[in-house]
Specification:
The protein contains nine helices and no strands. The protein is mostly helical and 179 residues long.
């Protein structure tokens, strides 16, 4: 199962990379442009996260917060609601707490991630019809798990940002115009 996920992720990255030879998509809507342009923002997210990743992963010794159920929910017909709830959770709880408890020398990477998440949340809500979004996602389980982790929860959530990036990437890649 993990091996298949790794292969799928590698394939998606190849398809979304600068070196992929795809026809340029002529988008006729802002939502199409948002989805087609997201790989650039994803690179920015990953670059900012690389600056702080080692710190958060080294302080993370807990069970996963973002598990396969989250990934399946993101890839479901109600994925935009899932994305909205997760982004709200990171914007309202995780990133502010990480900045507050930051033992790093700079909050710039966290601020960069927050700014991109803010834009992503806005665009996903604006494009609900484009994503054919259906029934809301129950986010309470993730929030309850986070709260049980107490002060270590922020390390868990920040340590799993790369996983969240992958989920976002897969969700948006599935919405790309077929070439």
């Amino acid at each position: 199962m993990i091996f298949t996920g790794v292969i799928f992720s590698a394939l998606v990255m190849l398809l979304l990379s600068d070196s992929a030879q795809c026809k340029r998509v002529d988008c006729k809507s802002d939502c199409c442009s948002f989805v087609e342009g997201f790989p650039v923002r994803l690179k920015e997210l990953r670059s900012a996260y690389r600056e702080i990743q080692r710190f958060y992963e080294s302080n993370d010794d807990l069970e996963p917060l973002l598990n396969e159920n989250v990934q399946q929910s993101i890839n479901s017909p109600h994925g935009c609601h899932v994305m909205n709830e997760i982004l709200r959770f990171y914007l309202d709880t995780i990133l502010p707490t990480a900045v507050q408890k930051n033992h790093l020398h700079s909050t710039t990477p966290i601020d960069s991630i927050g700014n991109i998440f803010q834009d992503l949340k806005r665009d996903i809500l604006k494009c609900k019809n484009y994503f054919s979004c259906q029934n809301p996602f129950e986010f309470a389980n993730i929030k309850n798990s986070f709260e049980k982790m107490k002060e270590k929860g922020v390390y868990k959530a920040m340590g799993e940002l790369d996983m969240l990036f992958k989920y976002i990437e897969q969700y948006l890649a599935a919405k790309r115009v077929k070439h």
